[in-house]
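Colleagues,

Please find the record for the two-part complex below.
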Amino acid sequence: MSNPEISIMVFGQLTDITGTSSLQVPLQADSDSMKAELQKRYPALVYARYIMAVDRKPVTGNVSLSGQSTIALLPPFSGG
Amino acid sequence: MNMSVSNHISDRYNRQLILKGFGEKAQEKLASAKILVIGAGGLGCPALLYLVAAGVGQIGIVDHDQVSLSNLHRQVLYDMDDIGKPKASMAALKLGRLNDQVTITPLPIRLQPTNCLGLLAEYDIILDGTDNFAARYMVNDACVLLDKPLVYGAVSQYEGQVAIFNVGETRTNYRDLFPHPPAAGEVLNCAEAGVLGVLPGIIGTMQAAEAIKLITGIGQPLVNRLYTFNVLGYDSYELIIEPTPLSASLIPPDAEHFSETNYDWLCGLVSTEFEIDNSIFHSLLSKENTLIIDVREEGETPLADGFPHRQLPLSLLKEKLQDLEAETVVFFCQSGKRSLQAAQWLKEINGPVKNIFSLQGGILNWRSPISE
């Protein structure tokens, strides 16, 4: 059985890579596997600068994910 | 203060004086506050307009740039007659006409690590309206060292971010979000990626609102929260910021180290002749007569276990440079900064090594194309 899908919010110029600001991706066990899954789907993410946030907090290590997790990808902005 | 002046003042600020939860006390706090606005551009213009209108007592405006035609779609303090004139002085001139109760100081200088701390120390709150990462990281680090509230704002295309740093029991700063500055060209700026003119108007105005809330103590300022706004769908998102040990380790420990930090170089704006990306690095791994060197100190993680290399910490490297024997030497470290330093040292000794490289982005960004 395939994993249930989870939506991921994508911000800023990362949408140039993903083509959308809301991604639907099969749920992964943790943030590391989610990053790997995203990089498999969007290889350009490997070289992109961004932070992944789970439940509104930036991920610094590896955190487990559930169907209720809110996930976002945020790039840095410099414009003023 | 005589009667007519104080009537004048209560008339000017009447609509906010009669606000429940604001009143004279809040107005007095504004009048005694000192704010430094860094950058009088897309964010700085609207922020300045509202801070001056609201009656912030003293406002400094730092900007070394001149007005250009392509500024006018978003930098609303200027008009066509201002093209070619210094932004800081023109902004001060116009703002002076808006409110003569505010002391406005134009500072048409380039902010640098050598003058930054002294200038920022004179103000209560710093508002970041800069337009590049080198200035943003410099201002961030200076505010951490000075323990100075920083109202951060940034825009790109249709999206903006606002946050307040160095306030509250748990202090956070921009490096808790993005520890290292991106390399040159990695993240496009407004000149490259574009920006909808009204967007910095919204974000700069939000920064002014946050500064006013901080000064007067009203509401819930965006302390340790990064607010993200997209003007196309009016989507907003809030991130909770927490202090990280990495961030703390990256900020210069004191004023002396700060003044010696080259933020342009950190942001890849200077000398990148040595830098190579992941794919070139990967191709060099199998090249003959090539030495790959990890210049990180002992015990640093992640370990580089995917390819053969030597370990030679930067702290011990200088005396060993003469002994390096290879046609090509590739340095790497955590993020690509120390390895760049190593590459520069090796070049300076003019030794037998023909090709000198540094892995851009370091081991943190390294991924073997084969393992994908």
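The mean pLDDT of chain A is 92.

Comments are welcome before we finalize the supplementary table.
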